[in-house]
Amino acid sequence: MPNTPDPTLAHPSTRPELTTVTFLSTVVTSPLIEVGDYTYYDDPAGAEEFETRNVLYNHGPARLRIGRFCALATGARFIMPAANHPMIGCSTYPFTLFGGDWADATLDIATSLPTKGDTVVGNDVWIGRDATIMPGVRIGDGAIIATGAVVTSDVPAYGIAAGNPARVIRRRFYDDDVALLQRIAWWDWPIATITTHVRTIMAGQPKQLAAVARQEGLLHD
Question: Which residue ranges does UniProt annotate as crossing the membrane (predicted)?
């Protein structure tokens, strides 16, 4: 039997110093949050509380969707669209929030405000410590979000974004290789195949990984 982490365990690492690492799919319960297998959050204060401490203003209809094999460092936060205030008139004060006559007079305004929709994080994304992802942002596969970044706009696949507001400072690979990696989509391979070729996935170049994918019948030209 292969010795690989069990995606159904909250704390999958056999290393005692990594008990702070938690597979999020095992602890998230909110129907508004979707997390793929093997995506983890690392927090010494308790990664199990991710959905209440790190996903803020999470009351529908927008969802947070995170792919597989992502790595989230301590303090990574997602601001959901419910945090937004109206900016169509003289005041940004959320009168509707408090119910009563205020809500009766303004509910139609609040429910018709534009929204940026779901916040989407692709596969194999690394989000650094204390990074903040703003509502409706889409982060592509293989992207890296630097420590302390405030991401206010979309980040392309295999882009590296840093700063406040974050900007893409470079791409990890040339466009042709990015397109190739997304066709390979190693994160969707069977775990046994990933395990067999984990060294190439971790340290190989896109064309080397493409050769493996063709060998396995997982990439066709």
Answer: none
**182-215 per-position pLDDT tens digit:** 999 999 999 999 999 999 999 999 999 999 999 9
Selecting among 11, 59, 85, 220, the annotated active-site residue is: 85
DSSP-derived secondary structure for the chain: ------TT-SS--SSGGGTTEEEGGGT---TTEEE-TT-EEE-TTTGGGHHHHTEES--SS--EEE-SS-EE-TT-EEE-GGG----SSS----GGGG-HHHHHHHHHHHHTS-----EEE-SS-EE-TT-EE-TT-EE-TT-EE-TT-EE-S-B-TTEEEEETTEEEEEESS-HHHHHHHHHH-GGGS-HHHHHHTHHHHHH--HHHHHHHHHHTT----
Can 59 be counted among the known catalytic residues?
no
Q: What is the pLDDT of residues 74-122, one digit of tens each?
A: 999 999 988 888 899 999 999 998 999 999 999 999 888 888 899 999 9
- 49 and 107, same structural domain? yes
